[in-house]
């Protein structure tokens, strides 16, 4: 049907994109418009959300194939890493918005 390993790879890539996007926004021209800031934030939060969804789909795959041992071994790490992903994504985006607060009119 499909190789479920791609769900983990996709999740990792999208998680990195969720962090890289606000960093790129910070390193870009300081004369960014509101539209660019909003666009970068939407891309970042979307990548974060999709990364977590891919992990949920991977867990669903483990349930469907009844690989309970793998599910029990990985669910704690998945929960922790998902929490870190969300917190860091929020912090990076908030920091970006604070950094540009005085430079643009939000």
Short descriptors:
106 residues; elongated; 81% helix; mainly alpha
Task: Offer a quick outline of the entry.
This protein is mainly α. It has 3 helices and no strands. Helix 1 runs antiparallel to helix 2 (34-64) and helix 2 packs antiparallel against helix 3 (68-99).
Number-wise, the strands total 0
Q: Unreliable segments (pLDDT under 50, ≥5 consecutive)?
A: none
Name the average pLDDT: 90
What is the share of helical residues?
A: over 70%
N-to-C SSE string, H for helix and E for strand: HHH
* Shape field: elongated
Q: Can you tell me the number of structural domains? A: 1
Strand content: under 5%
Radius of gyration: 17 Å
- Secondary-structure content class: mainly alpha
First-last Cα distance: 47 Å
| Tally of helical segments | 3
Instruction: Please outline the major beta sheet.
Output: none
